[in-house]
């Protein structure tokens, strides 16, 4: 088979070409800081909810298999715990561990999986997306509060309110423009109704605009990402995120007896670069902010190679 005709090449090339276009636009200042914020709001508050609701509005709950989700989070939780244990229990360590485990499943993953594996693969990914932030970010918030409390006690100060922060993290992860439309779409599907054309068509048009715009914004953000002074540690965190996590997820899925497309989507999702939500923790706790930003940029840039490798290996091991 000609390399240009390989499904992995055909699905990855549009993704990284659009990121490259965004990178060029960012470098040339065609899209500036204020515009990026407004466009991000457009993506997250309008385009992505339309895509997620429409995709899940035809999915029956009895068709969903949650075993791959369990396999994914077993591996991600193990890597998170080992990373924290390796560097020590403090806020800096926890944020770095999250940078090595939290995938960019929305801005990059949805378009990539849709192109590579179609509607069936997208449903599997969106099932994971619906709980990805809730589980990892809530766990991260709790562990960070415990670490912050320990550091506060060591300084002789007052410890933060752990459960109040945990509840805020849970509430913010559920009432959110990503999991909320997924849940609403699933609930609508259980009614047995179908969306009328006058509603379905606008949702389809809005959803189709998500992929290109989201990928261009990833490139714009990448253009503004500094690596100076942080590239060595950012490289190690990127290797953890882009290569080590997919290996662990693959082994976990194998242990659960997962095969076929579900296995492939879980491993590819694990191989996606670091997601932007990790920076929110770095910013909140005022630790490794520059390193987190550098890791997001480096893992995204390296994913051109690492994602290609992961997807090629999976196409050889698990033909779908």
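-> sequence recovered:
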């Amino acid at each position: 088979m000609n390399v240009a005709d390989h499904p992995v090449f055909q699905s990855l090339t549009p993704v990284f070409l659009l990121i490259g276009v965004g990178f060029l636009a960012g470098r040339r200042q065609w899209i500036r800081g204020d515009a990026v914020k407004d466009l991000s709001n457009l993506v997250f508050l309008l385009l992505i909810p339309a895509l997620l609701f429409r995709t899940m509005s035809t999915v029956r709950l009895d068709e969903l298999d949650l075993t791959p989700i369990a396999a994914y989070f077993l591996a991600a939780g193990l890597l998170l715990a080992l990373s924290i244990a390796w560097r020590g229990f403090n806020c800096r360590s926890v944020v770095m561990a999250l940078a090595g485990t939290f995938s960019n499943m929305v801005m990059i993953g949805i378009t990539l999986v849709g192109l590579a594996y179609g509607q069936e693969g997208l449903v599997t990914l969106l099932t994971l997306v619906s709980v990805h932030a809730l589980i990892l970010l809530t766990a991260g918030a709790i562990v960070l509060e415990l670490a912050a409390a320990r550091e506060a006690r060591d300084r002789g100060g007052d410890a933060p309110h752990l459960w109040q922060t945990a509840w805020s993290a849970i509430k913010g992860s559920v009432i959110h423009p990503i999991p909320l439309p997924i849940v609403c779409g699933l609930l609508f599907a259980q009614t047995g109704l179908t969306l009328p054309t006058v509603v379905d068509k606008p949702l389809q048009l809005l959803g189709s605009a998500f992929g290109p715009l989201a990928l261009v914004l990833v490139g714009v953000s990448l253009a503004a990402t500094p690596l100076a002074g942080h590239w060595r540690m950012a490289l190690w965190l990127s290797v953890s995120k882009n290569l080590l996590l997919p290996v662990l997820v693959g082994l976990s899925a194998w242990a659960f007896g997962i095969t076929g497309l579900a296995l492939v989507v879980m491993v590819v999702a694990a191989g996606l670069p670091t997601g932007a939500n990790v920076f929110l923790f770095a910013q909140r706790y005022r630790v490794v902010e520059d390193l987190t930003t550098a890791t997001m940029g480096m893992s995204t840039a390296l994913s051109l190679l690492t994602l290609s490798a992961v997807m090629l290996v999976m196409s050889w091991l698990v033909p779908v």
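The chain has one domain: 3-315.
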